[in-house]
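Postdoc handover notes: sequence design on the structure in folder B. Input tokens:
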């Protein structure tokens, strides 16, 4: 069993917060262990809780269309959430629930080592952007250590308020350019001068 699968098994048996009491299945996440891109949503919903898989409801279908728009599929990326169990009635996750799940998310990031983390919604945005509104920073990449964080509105926002749809679609189209810039920096020879700051940042 791989390190990531062992972590997923641990998450499925987790009892660290009250969300465990009402869940059908925990939703650790899914995707390749060497994924370049990691998408982090907020919390599982009804369908995710039933299937134990992330983003399988209407928001997930929209996410798959977004991925297709940049020639990717679910199989190419790792998808998870800030909290791994469904909050009752799909309410917002509470601070103590986010805190209980945080070590799992940090270990997933350590194991997968993505180049790009796309945060979906305001709760996962807090990983890299605190004290600002998502409406101000969406679509603006930020490099922290070896990882670029890219905040987007949650796909569910487009389902509730159609004005968000084009905003989300436009942000998604920026991802190939960000990856291309990261790869060009990686291709620099070690004995060359340090590369210039990414033009996108």
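Designed sequence:
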């Amino acid at each position: 069993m791989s390190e990531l699968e062992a972590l997923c098994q641990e998450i499925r048996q987790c009892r660290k917060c009250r969300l465990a009491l009402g869940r059908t299945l925990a939703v650790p996440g899914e995707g390749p262990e060497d994924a370049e891109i990691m998408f982090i949503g907020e919390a599982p919903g009804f369908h995710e809780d039933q299937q134990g898989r992330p983003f399988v409801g209407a928001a997930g279908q929209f996410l798959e269309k977004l991925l297709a728009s940049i020639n990717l599929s679910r199989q190419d990326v790792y998808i998870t959430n800030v909290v791994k169990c469904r909050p009752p009635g799909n309410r917002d996750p509470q601070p103590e629930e986010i805190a209980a799940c945080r070590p799992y998310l940090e270990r997933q990031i350590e194991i997968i080592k993505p180049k790009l983390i796309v945060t979906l919604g305001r709760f996962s945005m807090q990983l890299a952007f605190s004290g600002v509104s998502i409406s101000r920073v969406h679509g603006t990449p930020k490099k922290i250590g070896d990882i670029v964080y890219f905040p987007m509105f949650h796909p569910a926002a487009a389902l509730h308020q159609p004005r968000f749809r084009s905003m989300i679609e436009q942000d998604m189209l920026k991802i190939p350019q960000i990856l291309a810039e990261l790869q060009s920096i990686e291709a620099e020879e070690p004995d060359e001068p340090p590369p210039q700051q990414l033009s996108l940042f």
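Context for whoever picks this up: The domain at 3-186 is CATH 3.40.470.10 (Uracil-DNA Glycosylase, subunit E). Don't rerun without checking with the PI first.
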